[in-house]
Design brief:
By secondary structure, the chain is mainly beta. The protein has one helix and twelve strands. Helices cover 7% and strands 41% of the residues. The protein binds copper (II) ion. Copper (II) ion (CU) binds next to loops. This is Nuclear export factor GLE1.
Length: 167
């Protein structure tokens, strides 16, 4: 019942484009090095302040380097005992972002050569609460409106790329 009510609410009042945490761009070439920003459109609740943005790196991404941001620190997590050159399992940015503003937190990633979609769960920690952007649509309900969707990056197959822009 609760989920159904949320779905109806989402249909009745679509959220603005900047809402949620989304990947920008939301499409990248499979197997490429891609700089992808995770855009945070609002705080955990109205008037709150975002303090941390934790981006979980899915399997198959073999490298992920955070772009430093003035006023923010970052922390890279790796599997215990992993090679320091191994891909991070998560990157957390810490700073301050008021609800009225938005910001972007970028990673340079080596993407897997195969696959359709990468899912990046994002944990947003605020002064007064937390938002877990971890929901994914189930195959049973592909059109379902989610209240806290994970950030999605769609992969473009290598063979569908134009031959230009190879530099
Ligand atoms: Cu939103």
């Amino acid at each position: 019942m609760h989920r159904f009510a949320l779905a109806l609410l989402a249909l009745a009042a679509p959220l603005p484009a900047l809402a949620h945490v989304v990947a920008a761009p939301d499409t990248a070439r499979a197997g490429s090095y891609a700089a992808v920003a995770f855009r945070v459109g609002h705080a955990c609740s109205a008037g709150d302040v975002t303090l941390k943005v934790r981006i979980e790196i899915p399997p198959g991404v073999v490298s992920a380097r955070p772009q430093p941001k003035p006023g923010w620190t970052y922390e890279i997590e790796r599997e215990a005992g992993a090679d320091p050159k191994a891909a991070p399992s998560a990157v957390t940015f810490s700073g301050r972002l008021p609800d009225e503003a938005f910001d972007e937190f970028a990673l340079l990633m080596k993407l897997p050569a195969t696959g359709d979609t990468l899912v990046f769960p994002v944990i947003q920690t605020c002064e007064k609460g937390e938002s877990q952007w971890t929901e994914v649509t189930s195959p049973d309900a592909p059109g379902e409106k989610l209240s806290r969707p994970a950030a999605i990056l769609r992969l473009t197959p290598v063979e569908l790329q134009p031959a230009t822009h190879q530099h």
